[in-house]
Amino acid sequence: MTDQKRQLAAIMFTDIAGFTALMGQGEASAMKAVERNRTIQMPLVEKYGGQWHKDLGDGSLCSFNSSVNAVKCAIEIQNKLKQEVVFKVRIGIHLGDVTFNKGDIFGDGVNIAARIETEAAEGGICISESVYRSIKSHEDIEAVYFGKRKFRNVSEHLALYQIKSSGVTMKKRNRKIPIALLIVFPILLALLTGILSWHLKPSKNGINQVMRYSVVLPNNISWVSDIALSHDGETLVFGAEVDGYLHSQMFIRSLNSFDLNHIQEVGFIEDPVFSHDDSKVIFNSQGPINVYSMMTGNITKFGSASSIRTQGITWIDDAVVFAPGIGNNELVYNLIKIPSTGRDSEILASPQNEKGEVVDYSAPFYIDGSNKLLYQANLSSGPSMIRILDLTSLKSKDLLTGQSPKYINTGHLLFKEGESLMGVTFDVENSKVQGTPNRLLSGVDGDLFSISSNGIMAFVETQELKRKAVFVDRSGVEAPIALPNLESWDSPRISPDNSKIVFVNPSTSSLWIYDIRKETSQLLVSNRSYTAVWLPDGENVAYRGNDSRTIFMVNIMNPGKIDTLVTSNNTIYPVSFSSNGNLMFYDEIHSSDSKNILIYDREKNVTIPFLITPAWENMARFSPNDKLVAYSSNETGQFEIYLKRFPDTGEKWNVSIGGGTEPMWSKDGDELFYRNGNRIMAVQVKYEEDFDYGKPDLLIEGAYPKSPFDITNFDISQNGDTFLMLKPVSTGKKEIHIIVNWFEELKELMGGV
């Protein structure tokens, strides 16, 4: 028997607006506001037949059997609170499937209601379309359409409505033109006028004139991660990291307008590619391949095969080929084809079937109408090789060294060599390179170039995405560290004696040691190493190796001494050690939806499951006395921090409020720290005879981005007063360069060929 019950319910989230500011004015008055809010709401929830499930810091989570009762309750709450001069409340309501279990409530319906609440006005009520359909026939309740919103971890855009009633505040729909657009509008208008004039102007001597301009991106974009032009050259799609946070978001922009539309916000969007008719865009989003409809804006899944990361996607008629990056080894390192039916994915190429030193594949590119596929074979030594695969015989052929191959209909193979875009004449039918490659463009960042069928080129110049390391005290004061600037996903770690920092240099995939007192850095491991963790002895470091399936240990005084700790068929990461160093927690990515926590016993040389569930659970850390374990889990629909006893007794406690990742213990075990967005929170923990924990308090707030790979991205000094954080370094404006009629320039660069 189980206590769980799944049913349709109206979920109501409430939250005190500006609660952080209230806390800044005085904790005592803020707590009085919380208690006053609770005193007003609870009797009304009971009056309308609702169930009060839990307090959420300054808010609450309730459910109702009736959407009408939920809305009426919300209206009366706002009317009661109208006289309160200290605070106002936002309310969000959604009707959806949820699971009830022992007085608590879980499911997507809860997650969506929480997202909707953030859209409500201060003193207002925001509802989903499912609630609106339930109440629209009731004459005593009026709702006004508010617009569509895209929420993180919600696959579709949601239509939202605001309740219009006496005593309920409504938010005005924002129709203002952004300041940034007002600034650049005259420039863009001049450029657009020039483009339109050029289109209407006859070509000179029968040759179309080449024209260059740039799409300048908003100031909050720190990094362009992907780029794709439609085949007709009219639409640009790109991925970008916004506001210094390491989550790629996707944007769409017509080259004949000024509108920049946000497609979707999900962790680490990558590899957008247009369909042959430009009606769809396919991309990866940490799991199954997604298809975005240019006509409807809807997002659907393409097949069941998935990968946390991809290293390139391409269309083949109505099928898709992609190169997986991180995840289950049944997929990773291969080239995978998914038919439009979504079933029976096929391995087109596998390093296991290759002769030589192939590590994995990337950058697949289908040559339209040829039944042939270009791709990049990454070797364990030497430069990458560009190959062509016959999709009938599944036989491949080496073409030349290079990266990111693309074929264009002028008869040329384009590829990257360092920061240069190269071009060479190519005979597709015979799969043969003709002549010597020529340099076409310099300073092109990675594979960030795309060419339309009619000769429009879009590319991004070499970017710098850096993070500087800083020490931050509990009052938020920063002190710079002479640690070399790091790229996006590094996770530096302080040694147990506070004298050193171990960090990874992603540009060379090498492991380094930084001496804090001497301010010097020294190479530790040069061979593709990632995600380092100190052992308690301060003499050894565990790290994920080259193939992502092995965790090694290196001695910092004798770097030539490298031992294998544990291997897996899946991608794994070391996380933490017990106080004596015998037990190691590590994460294993089982699939796009499941990340497991395991323990490796060094003495017995065995692996012990700790948490193996359908959820994504990770970052487990022993308390200093090894009696508790803190970890992060998304079992409720969003990540929260949980505590368990060790050894596990089956009990667990949710100690975070409103989301949490990256748990980290103070060295004495009296405090547990975790990340909530751009905030570091602290929870007091007591574990003697009686176990207890306190309410999370805000400790540090600032632009210290988390890792996109769910790796802890901060650390704590021995005394618990200083935090090691990574902070974005400004590298100037970001822009995408456009060259119209680039094919004319290509002819000259290729010697008229």
By DSSP, the count of extended strands is 57
- Approximate helicity band: 10-25%
Q: What assembly state would you assign to the polypeptide chains in this entry?
A: single chain
Distance between the termini: 75 Å
Arithmetic mean of pLDDT: 83
Shape: globular
- Taking pLDDT < 50 over at least 5 consecutive residues as the criterion, the unreliable ranges are 174-204
Q: Could you name the CATH homologous superfamily of the domain at 470-729?
A: TolB, C-terminal domain
The CATH class label of the domain at 470-729 is Mainly Beta
Our count of helices gives 7
Summarize this structure briefly:
With 753 residues, the protein is mainly beta. It contains 7 helices and 57 strands.
Q: How would you describe what is shown here?
A:
The structure is a single chain. The protein is mainly beta and 753 residues long. Among the domains are: 5-164, Nucleotide cyclase, GGDEF domain (Alpha-Beta Plaits); 470-729, TolB, C-terminal domain (Neuraminidase, 6 Propeller), CATH 2.120.10.30. 12% of the residues lie in helices and 49% in strands. The chain has seven helices and 57 strands. The strands form 13 sheets. Strands 1, 2, 3, 4, 5, 6, 7 and 8 form an eight-stranded mixed β-sheet that branches. Strands 50, 51, 52, 53 and 54 form a five-stranded antiparallel β-sheet that branches. A hairpin with a 7-residue loop joins strand 20 and strand 21 (346-349). Helix 1 (19-25) packs across helix 2. The chain starts with a strand and ends with a helix.
